[in-house]
Specification:
The chain has 279 residues and is of the alpha+beta class. The protein has helices at residues 3-13, 67-70, 76-81, 102-111, 166-174, 202-217, 223-238, 246-258, 263-277, and strands at residues 18-22, 26-27, 84-87, 94-99, 116-119, 124-129, 135-139, 142-145, 151-152, 162-163. Strands 4, 5, 6, 7, 8 and 10 form a six-stranded mixed β-sheet that branches. Strands 2-1-3-9 form a four-stranded antiparallel β-sheet.
């Protein structure tokens, strides 16, 4: 039996939801629409222009403890080429503090209560019992992985696992990403026929952007997927006629960042949506 599959089955038996990873710690796309992350690289429900699976099919949301799924014919090709195994920390009731370098490790040893630890390529994973919101870059070299995130399985680690401390929860509160405008100018093609753009009525365009902002702001879960789907919808309606300005894009990015998305995630989602539409 494949070593990664064997590891996954052992973890699943201990109620740890697992998934295979490709080289580069990237999840597989579990359906044709997600091959090569064409759907935008985020766990996503059935959407217009995105993944058309009947349910969430990859990324952290695909992690499972179901032996039948893990051993299924659909997952078999992934295990044959998998580079590693990942797990959904929150699905196992855990939070991972990912310390990416020696400075971050030194900071944790001085600041955080001890718990179970694992050595990584460049630093350490500190594993706590309890779940919270996942946040990247809460300080230099430190990410928090719990809900809506996956972490690479590196072993059972050493030390006694302790309860998630307030010190870690406070990092997420104090280091919520600063809302910033779009960092890059966005260029969209003008009308091929050179005619007047039907969206240049301020009311029509502003209403559409406002609805998109509201859709992102109202998201209660699957924020990554909602942001990507919203960007895709906006670009589907306005991406080919020259309507969108940097101000419009900045409004969308600002709404997404207010929900915890980073500027990089916003840029990636926008780029993936444009690629999907051939813009």
């Amino acid at each position: 039996m494949n070593a990664h599959l064997h590891t996954a089955l052992i973890l699943a038996e201990t109620a740890v939801p697992v998934l295979p990873l490709r080289a580069g710690k990237i999840p597989f796309g579990n359906c044709p629409d997600c091959a090569g992350l064409a759907c935008g690289g985020r766990p996503t429900m059935k959407t217009v222009g995105g993944c058309r699976c009947p349910r969430v099919c990859h990324g952290w949301a695909a992690a499972t403890t179901d032996r039948a799924v893990i051993m299924s014919a659909a997952w078999a090709p992934m295990w044959r080429t998998a580079a590693s195994v990942a797990y959904h920390p929150a699905g196992a009731g855990l939070t991972v503090v990912d310390l990416d370098d020696t400075d971050a490790v030194a900071w944790a040893r001085q600041t955080l209560p001890p718990t179970r630890t694992l050595v990584t390529t460049r630093g350490e994973h500190w594993i706590y019992r309890g779940t919270m919101r996942s946040v990247n870059a809460v300080r230099d070299g430190v990410d928090i992985k719990s809900t809506m995130a996956y972490a690479r399985w590196l072993g059972f680690g050493t030390g006694t696992m302790t309860a998630l401390p307030d010190a870690v929860r406070e990092l997420a509160v104090k280091n919520t990403p600063t809302v910033q405008p779009a960092q890059h100018a966005v260029t969209v093609p003008a009308l091929a026929a050179g005619g007047d753009c039907r969206h240049r009525t301020p009311t029509y365009l502003d209403r559409g952007i406002s609805m998109a902002e509201r859709r992102i702001t109202d998201a209660r879960s699957q924020v990554h997927a909602t942001v990507y789907r919203t960007f895709l919808a906006v670009l589907s309606a306005h991406g080919r006629c020259g309507c969108l300005t940097d101000d419009h894009v900045a409004r969308l990015f600002t709404a997404a960042q207010a929900k915890g998305e980073t500027a990089r995630h916003c840029t990636d989602a926008w780029t993936n949506a444009r690629t999907r539409l051939g813009l």
